Amino acid sequence: MNNLKPILNNLNLWVLVSLTLGLAPFLPEPHVVGKIRWVLGGATGMTGTDWFDLLLHLTPWLLLVRILVLRIRHNLL
């Protein structure tokens, strides 16, 4: 796990990955936005593949939020 720390704590990497893979494809709207709307609308008709796809698109954003929270907490302590 120590080998992953530099990657998991690299803010620039997660900003870049979130803005590219986290939002791709971009048109007509970011894919993850459509998936979130689908879930908020009741997730009617979503299959396991759709849930897995949502997880893949949300992972960079979750890791970005993680590193931001850790940095804020570190600066406040």
The H-and-E topology, N to C, reads as HHHH
Shape: elongated
Q: What is the number of domains? A: 1
Classify the secondary structure makeup into a structural class.
Answer: mainly alpha
Number of helices: 4
Low-confidence stretches: none
β-strand percent reads under 5%
Instruction: Report the count of strand segments.
Output: 0
The Rg value, from CA coordinates, equals 15 Å
Largest sheet descriptor: none
Distance between the termini: 25 Å
Question: What portion of residues is helical?
Answer: 55-70%
What integer is the average pLDDT?
Answer: 88
Question: Could you explain the architecture of this structure?
Answer:
It is a single chain. The chain is mostly helical and 77 residues long. It has one domain (2-76). The protein is built from four helices and no strands. Helix 2 (11-20) runs antiparallel to helix 4 (48-76). The protein is elongated.
Quick summary:
The chain is mostly helical. It has helices at residues 5-8, 11-20, 31-40, 48-76.
Helix/strand layout:
Elements: H1 5-8, H2 11-20, H3 31-40, H4 48-76
Keywords:
mainly alpha, 0% strand, 4 helices, 77 residues
